[in-house]
Design the sequence.
């Protein structure tokens, strides 16, 4: 396979940019730095992706590095596994969350298992990018939040940035990882802007972060719900309530130490995610924190998320998705104990 490099057009100083642009810049940097990095997926090349996340990359790096694939998710991931076995670092895009399931067999039975199956001799440094979640008025199969399905599988790392800076750095770290990473991109936040500093030293990929300090209760979220939790904290502050907000950043592994430290300070925890509450990631967090913090908790760990039902038509999605009032109601219930 031939390779082609490009003159760097990436950022060189802190710059305000949208989350989608930050991922684009991060992919560009990875392609420049390592000729073994490839970008693959449906319409990622000439079109630049349906959300334009890969816009301009094929033009600058060529069709051998940024590859338009057939509409065959199983084939995309299967090909990436073969390339990884030959020393490449493929970054594959699943165009929408609900399209990943034809590739689920490849991800779960091959990508996640090969390292253990080979007794550690074989590594598969594959990143699977999945735009996920609702809030954009999309049709069926375009607004799912299937992160718990992947977090349940040993051998996969599952992460989701909530802002442009994390998107930039976490993509770099995911590509550099020798383990397969499922990279969930919150599509409703693609156009949210934040400052990105390409010279900042990033924290560990799977480390949670306190984005707002508080004393009365902890809100823990990741991806698209972090911004909502910050809005909830603002609203609660007007009523004299001090809420701490955690950005978990990683779903598997989970940074339980940071969650525990926060709960020991606030003594209350609410976990918020778009995915259905039933068997969701919040359930694991609630169980583990109850074990760790039993004598610190002054209320049961509560969860706010989607309903245990198929994702509704776009005109009803605001009723399905967690919103300000639903999270504030959980805050009131927790503080009432």
Sequence:
């Amino acid at each position: 396979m031939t390779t082609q490099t490009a003159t760097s057009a990436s950022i060189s100083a802190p710059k305000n940019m949208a989350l989608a642009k930050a991922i684009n810049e991060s992919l560009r940097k990875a392609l420049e730095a390592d000729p073994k990095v490839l970008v693959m997926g449906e319409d990622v090349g000439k079109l630049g992706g349906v959300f334009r996340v890969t816009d301009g990359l094929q033009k600058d790096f060529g069709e051998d590095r940024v590859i338009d694939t057939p509409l065959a998710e199983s084939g995309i991931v299967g090909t990436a596994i073969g390339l990884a076995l030959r020393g490449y670092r493929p970054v594959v895009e699943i165009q929408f969350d609900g399209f990943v399931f034809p590739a689920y067999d490849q991800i779960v039975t091959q990508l996640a298992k090969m390292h253990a199956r080979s007794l550690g001799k074989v590594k598969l440094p594959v990143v699977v990018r999945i735009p996920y979640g609702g809030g954009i008025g999309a049709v069926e199969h375009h607004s799912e939040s299937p992160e718990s399905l992947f977090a349940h599988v040993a051998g996969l790392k599952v992460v989701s940035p909530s802002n442009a800076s994390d998107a930039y750095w976490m993509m770099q770290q995911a590509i550099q990882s020798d383990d397969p990473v499922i990279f969930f991109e919150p599509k409703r936040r693609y156009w949210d802007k934040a400052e990105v500093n390409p010279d900042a030293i990033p924290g560990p990929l799977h480390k949670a972060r306190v984005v707002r300090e508080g004393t009365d209760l902890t809100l823990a979220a990741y991806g698209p719900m972090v911004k909502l939790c910050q809005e909830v904290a603002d609203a609660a502050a007007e009523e004299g309530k001090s809420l701490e907000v955690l950005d978990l950043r990683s779903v598997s592994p989970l940074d339980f130490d940071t969650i525990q430290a926060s709960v020991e300070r606030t003594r209350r925890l609410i976990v918020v995610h778009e995915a259905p509450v039933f068997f969701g990631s919040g359930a694991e967090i609630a169980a583990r924190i109850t074990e760790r913090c039993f004598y610190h908790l002054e209320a049961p760990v509560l969860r706010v998320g989607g309903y245990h039902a198929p994702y509704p038509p776009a005109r009803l999605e605001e009723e399905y998705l967690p919103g300000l009032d639903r999270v504030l109601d959980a805050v009131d219930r927790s503080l009432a104990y």
User: Anything to note?
Assistant: The first strand starts at residue 15 and ends at 18. DSSP finds twelve helices and 14 strands in the chain.
